[in-house]
Amino acid sequence: MVLVLCIPTIQGSLLSVEAISPFSASLCGIYPHNVTISAQKVQNAGNQTIENVTAILVSEPNNGGISIIGPSLYLGSITPGILSVDPSWQVQCADPPGVYTLYVNFSNAQGSLGSSQEETVSVITVYANDQTPPNILSHFPLGVIPTSYMTMEVVTDEDATCKYSSIPGVGYANQQYSFQITGGKSHKVPLQNLIDNFYTYYVRCKDLAGNEAWSDYVVSVEINAPPTATISLSRLSPLSVGTTEVAITTSEPVKPVPSLSYSCNGNTVSVPVTGSGTSWKGYIIISQVNLNEVCSFSFSSTDLSGNAGSYITNGNVFLIDTIPPSAPTAFTAVEHRGLSVKLNWKLPLEGVKNFNIYRLTEESRDFYYYGTTTQNSFTDTVVSIGKTYAYRVSAVDEAGNEGPFSEEVSLLIKGISLEAAAVSAENSGKPTVKAALTLSEIDKTIAEADTLLEEFNALRTRFKTGDNPTDSVFSLLEPSELLKEAKVSLLKKKEGLGLLKNGNLADENIIEEFQAIKDEIDQVRHTVIVDIKTETEKSVVVKAPEEEQISQVISSYLATKKPAMSEEEKDRYLSSVRKMQSAAEVTAALQNIEITYLDGTKEKVVLIRKQVRIKEDGAKDPSSDSSSVKLSLLEFIPKDMASSVEEMILEKDAEIIDPDPLLGYPAPETGTFTYSYVLRKPVDTEAAAKAATLLVPKITPSSTTSGSSDAIKTDAKSWNFLTGNAVVSLADTISFYDVGITIGIILIIIIFIYSLIYSEKEISLKIQHDFPSFDRIRSYLPKRNRKESKNAGRMFPYYAHDDYQEAGLTPLLDSTLSVLLKKTDDALHDLDFEKAVKFYHLFCIQHDSASSKKEKANPSSERIKKKMTLLTKHTLLQYAVERNEFLNVRQVLNEIADLYNELLPGASEKEMRLLEHTRSSHAAYSAMLMKRK
User: Using the 8-state DSSP alphabet, how is residue 583 labeled?
Assistant: First the structure.
């Protein structure tokens, strides 16, 4: 009998794995040191439960590069189907580096149950731990570079990112510049506009593991490029008939004489030049008319090293235009009310820069040049009744070619009556002044002014009770100050209405003045704030200023504060600023505000509030371990937030560095500092986040970089931020020229006012333009009593209206010299030109008495003279702008700057309003003048 024992066998590969995750991984070096390996979707493909299963993670090769924590994992019993839990193992890297394959083996007591080796594996790459910074193996170019440009390249022994600087010893994080191509082993950056010189760059790199080079790799090259040229013309292109000087500036000294020619439509003309070194000049003579051509220069020269060059970096193309524009057409002349002639004409088809006006009078024998305008109209205000005037006009193009005259027009000035003016206006459908004025209309307007004053008092009471928005909003908008100014203005308007009642109500000038006062009262309503509504503040994400933005802001800051700073000093200052930014923590908030004015109009503005916390070492000089510096905060506002400071409301301690705008604030050495400003147009939080805040070392007037005698002289100067020049302190030196100019201006003002009082002659319209509103001033000034001969030459002051006295004015009959000086000073601080002139005039009259000799030496009197001159300059500035006399604008701005710099040291708190008004006005007009360029 044979006994057969049947032993069941376990079929192989009963268990399988769908995937091992991750499929691949990198460990050590710059990568993590561990990873989790999972066997996903373990499946029992049979129809029976498999007991006591163990899963083992296997590494091949198994030479120590992979360390598996607990490679054997007990899974227990696995029923048919997919296991609900994915087994996983922790894998660490070790030496040696290499590539390792991981797979899973399944088994139990009966033997192997399957393996994923043939189905799915995980490939692990182990790198060596990198603690060595990258090395630069080579650089390019080498030696002497024969061009003004090059591409600097360095090659590293491993993948890295590289930066460079012109200053040695700078850490990688603070390097000035980055390579344009970097991240691999080759790092490149183009460099242009190089001049003949030795250039040294200091390079540092950081590898992908974060290892930074601790020493500089020095790249030294010599530039010996051929000479280039910049060409400029003494007249702006296009050029017309005549001689034009050509100036050539070479990039380096050249010898012999360079060659210059220009070509127009294939015709080449040689231009002889003279000069030496880098400066040469010649002349272009254009005699042929009716030309309209595009011309280009050709240049060649040789430098002292023998390099020949012919490249023109700027000014190589110009235009010739000798074709004059055609004559204006439809030329008319119409007499206007107020003794003036309005000229109108149609524009020629060609481009025109301006029009020249020519006039013929009964006294002149021929037409003479009378003025110019950029518009197609012109108003002649210097005419007399009963005289005939003839006019003609010509057009001038951009090249200066003047075209033929228009047809001649002439006009007899008859004078236009009020009735004729009213009829003319009615026929034209345009509003005009009334032909008559009644006392009841004046009284009604005075009553309206009284009602407004009562409203002002109610608003003033409300503001005092504390029913206000937050302090920062209230202090910025200053509704109380605006209310005070409006009240003073309204009292003046009411005083003017009272004076009109004593005049001839049928006089056209009286009617016009009445209408002007009514319009000004309406305007006052728009300046008074009656309500301020604020919304909830929104936090603004403050972005760290970018490198390019820091450079742009600091460049503008230094150009204003210290234009004479050398390039090396600017680089050091910029480097300090970059290091200092980590010492400031900036938070910001945005708040929408709705302002309601007395006339019912509403304005929506935005308040930006910034808080800056300066760390303990914030005032530490980055270039020194012990020294400290004074700090300033710079606020750069982008154009999409405000195009200029005119679209902003600023705090009193804000300094306008650049109207573009760039603001400055004094900052503490440590602690928290808060400042705010208002934008007059809506912006969102995204736009507000673009405003950059920089912590910078303060530029002081006496700061210098050397100990030379020149530096000592610089310390004795105060920096003139209005003109950009250093102005020696008055205590060190006195300019007799400036003193003479100032005294001359004051004498002109006194003589002019004296002529208003004692002269019965008509004052020319031009003088009235130079000193506007003097007719109003004359009504306030003392008048001559011609009825009693015994009083001849004696002055009697005009007693003001009761409301005028309520405004705080002492009756002039009781005024002493000290009172007159104080009243003049107060009027100057309130920017009230008319009132200041009146009191100052009476003060000058009192000086003629023997008792006033001591007052003449009063220092306060001399200071008031300067402030009177400063306010007068403001008026002359407005007149010059209205007449487009921009050369005069530049001169007056510089005169204002000189006076400002004399008054600023030791200025009182009251004087600061006049000086702040001067600073704001100077900045606005200077910006306008610079934009014209």
Answer: G
H or E stretch at 75: strand 72-78
Question: What is the arithmetic mean of pLDDT over 125-140?
Answer: 89
Write down the pLDDT at residue 843: 67
Query: What is the C-alpha separation between 655 and 659, in angstroms, rounded?
Result: 10
| pLDDT the model gives residue 152 | 95
Residue 171 DSSP SS3: coil
DSSP state of 315: -
Cα(650)–Cα(664) distance, rounded to whole angstroms? 11
d(CA 355, CA 595): 45
What value does the CA radius of gyration of the chain take, rounded to a whole number of Å? 42
Q: Average pLDDT, whole number, for the chain?
A: 77
| Distance in angstroms between the alpha carbons of the first and the last residue of the chain | 124
- Rounded to an integer, what distance in angstroms lies between the CA atom of residue 44 and that of residue 841? 113
Secondary structure string (H, E, C) spanning 221-282: EEECCCCEEEEEECCCCCECCEEEEEEEEECCCECCCCEEEEEECCEEEECCEEEECCEEEE
Indicate if the alpha-carbon torsion angle 883, 888, 894, 900 is positive or negative. Answer: negative
**How far is residue 91 from each of residues 30, 104, 602, measured CA to CA in Å?**
17, 13, 70
Q: How far apart are CA 555 and CA 626, in angstroms?
A: 27
- pLDDT for the residue numbered 904: 84
What pLDDT is attached to residue 518?
82
- Residue 812 pLDDT greater than 50, yes or no: no
Q: How far apart are CA 93 and CA 82, in angstroms?
A: 31
Q: Which of 352-361, 653-662, 825-834 has the highest mean pLDDT?
A: 352-361
Q: Which residues are paired to 719 by β-bridges?
A: 726
861 within 8 A of 852, measured Cβ to Cβ: no
Eight-state DSSP code of residue 320: E
Q: Which has the higher per-residue pLDDT, 472 or 170?
A: 170
| Phi, psi dihedral angles at 127 (to 5 degrees) | -105, 160
Question: Cis before residue 61, ω within 30 degrees of 0?
Answer: yes
Task: Evaluate the CA torsion angle 268, 274, 280, 282 in order and state its sign.
Answer: negative
DSSP category for residue 851: G
Contact 10, 111 (CB under 8 A): yes
Strands (DSSP E) along 637-691, which ranges? 648-650, 655-658, 662-667, 671-679
Token output for 826: 């107060």
Least confident of 624-638, 752-766, 919-933: 752-766
Could you tell me which residues come within 8 angstroms of residue 308 by beta carbon, excluding any fewer than 6 positions away? 226, 300, 301, 302
**Closest by Cα among 330, 324, 331, 344 to 404:** 324
**Is the CB of residue 110 less than 8 Å from the CB of residue 52?**
no
pLDDT at 797 over 70: no
Confirm if 526 and 598 have CB atoms less than 8 A apart: yes
pLDDT of residue 34: 92
849 pLDDT exceeds 60?
A: no
CB-CB contact of 328 with 347 (8 Å): yes
Q: How far apart are CA 815 and CA 86, in angstroms?
A: 103
- How far apart CA 35 and CA 201 sit, in angstroms, is 43
Range 693-718 burial, b when 16+ CB lie within 10 A, else e:
bbbbbebebebeeeeeeeeeebeebb
The pTM assigned to this predicted structure is 0.35
CA distance 397 to 405: 14
**Beta strands 150-156; 186-191: pairing state:** antiparallel
